[in-house]
Amino acid sequence: MVSHLNAERIDVSRYRLPFRRAVMVAGVPMAERVGAMIRLTDPQGRVGFGEIAPLQGRHLETLDESLVSLKEGLSRGRPPTCPSAVFGLSCARAMAAREESLGLGTPPKGASIGINALFTGGAAEAQKMTREGLFAGFKTVKVKIGRARIIDDHAVIHALLEGLDSEVRLRLDGNRSFTLRIAQNLFKRLDLSRIEYVEEPLINPLELPDLHRLTGVTIAADESCANPKEREFVLGSPGIEVQVLKPSLLGTLDDVLDLITIGRIHGMDTVLSTAFESSFTIAMIARLASVASTGGRDHGLGTQGIFTQEFVDPWPIVEGRLQIDLPLPVPRLEFQPL
Description:
Elements: E1 2-3, E2 8-25, E3 28-41, E4 47-52, H1 63-76, H2 83-97, E5 112-114, E6 117-119, H3 123-131, E7 140-144, H4 150-163, E8 169-173, H5 180-187, E9 195-199, H6 208-215, E10 219-221, H7 228-234, E11 240-245, H8 253-265, E12 269-272, H9 279-291, E13 317-318, E14 321-323, E15 336-337
């Protein structure tokens, strides 16, 4: 599609990426990730790419709706109405322009950012992976909790803490699975010196400050960050020290930078993450993280390797750090006009 108002050309390629193991999203197992890549050619002939991949259970729009909003927005000279389309178009434009302020210029040789490892298995697998040294070099490990019995969560956490080096910290991601009472019982039994933070564990986010008061655990806001009313509540609330931002839920890359600044004003660090997008989007967000004032914590970009195949090569991870001094990735896909 050619937008006559700005002479941009947009082509699209849909994709399906199988997960190595089913991923639970909002209580529903997903066997594959479905999305689309767009290729933008700007008036100067420069080319950029962006990913549009709304995630069921996190985004309100479908892929078809997002692509329609992109097409309609371009034809009218307006932004798309769907956040995932706004994000993908923003990435494509910024990449085409090699926007230095968004980290898309040429990074210093050897540049890297710290990221967390991701663990989604059970206690036996945790023991096996720690014995084999598969978390070597990582300073933080993100652990999904709240999907099984509390006793199982506790067993996983215990196995990881037993097997990991003492300086490694866990990030416990509850995805709004617990009542306040159950969360209180779980976290009061843990050595909180080994827990960096607990990521949005409560069904009711308005009770997050109460959880901190009752247990002393540090809390990160995640789902609340994509809801303006909830975000206003969590900003600067007692015990909520971190905001986890998934850019494809929020809008343009500049919008994300603005939210990082607002969080910093309220004394909050920022961790940038993805909604199980491809390694292309991981690379884009990693570059953004390298130039943003986020507070120095590891970012939530450790989902490389969750797919059996990809259309770009994942950037290497060395000693828990994602190397970002490589050329921006170019998707190996066939594109058609939007």
